Amino acid sequence: MIAPEGWVYCYCDPVFSVFLPDSFGTCPVGGCRAFQSITFILFFAMFAEGCRRLWIQREHYKTAIYISNSLLTFANLTQSIRTILLFAEVVEIYGPTTLFLFGIGFYFSAYLWILVSWCDIILSVNFSKTAQKVFPIVRWAIIFLTIMHFVGWIIAIKIWWPYQATNAWIASYGFGTSLGFLFLGFFIWREYKSVSSIAAHGDNAEKTYRKVKKVTRLSAYVVAAALLMTAVSFGSSYIMPKNFSGMLAWLFITRGTFIIFSSSTLIFLIPQSKKMNQSTSSSNKSSQWSDKMNKMEFHSNDASAAANHDLEESVGQTQQPTNKIVGISANQDNNTGSSQV
């Protein structure tokens, strides 16, 4: 493609215009190909690993972890397809932009579903009036925010809002996700500490401890990754590259934060085999914790059943203590070379 006088043709990622001022220098074709190749390998590797885990967990398709893995796998698929379009140097911006934004939407949905399951875990072991009133509201609020995230992307593509708005939308959900994992992760850890004294020994206690430890690690990683993505989303709206070297660094940093964020569950949540551990018939809170943490189910009726069963058992026990509880720019402006995360 021939560039107008005073402009340079360079196709790296459609978040930047294909025509940039000649002050940027010479287009780093090799650097652009390296960026496209590395991102494709990483996204496709996470997609392949997601498929492997979905196959291993296929008998547990009703669990929150399975649904979360499904969303993450689909998100990595959309990013992989988008990268193929970059190799083909597709200049039509709506297709790559839609894949990019909805891929981000599925990333956030995957983590928000985990928070929904954590709300049910808390409800099944905490019978305080405050918890029983607050966490159902929190649960439905998370579901509502998940839906609104996709509504936001539909509006973005329909009206083609500024890339600053896109980055702000990504950053707001990144910050909200970090708060959700920080708060609910801490609450689960606190609840576990309050009930662990009931059955401090045995297989159930040890399994539950490992699960809670994994939840704590996942929470810490997601909080750090989400805050990093939030900072980069805000910063990339105001710190724009002045040359092609800066453009490549900008692309690697912004895409790298999404890869770090999306890899959280792949790192900390190991898939369970077909021989999934079954909960024992022990009728104490440690058993309930073990069963719930193994399944990570988010169905409200399941949570209510578990809660009612646990309450009945605790009433039947003599002197049993009650425990209280990012953007598109895609507004491709050939004259300005505007960009988005």
UniProtKB/TrEMBL annotation:
It comes from Heterostelium pallidum (strain ATCC 26659 / Pp 5 / PN500). The lineage of its organism: Eukaryota, Amoebozoa, Evosea, Eumycetozoa, Dictyostelia. It comes from the Eukaryota. The keyword Acetylation does not apply. This is THH1/TOM1/TOM3 domain-containing protein. Coiled coil: none annotated. The chain crosses the membrane at residues 34-51, 63-87, 99-125, 137-161, 167-189, 218-241, 247-270. Keywords: Membrane, Transmembrane, Transmembrane helix. Signal peptide: none annotated. Residues 315-341 have a biased composition (Polar residues). Residues 301-341 are annotated as: Disordered.
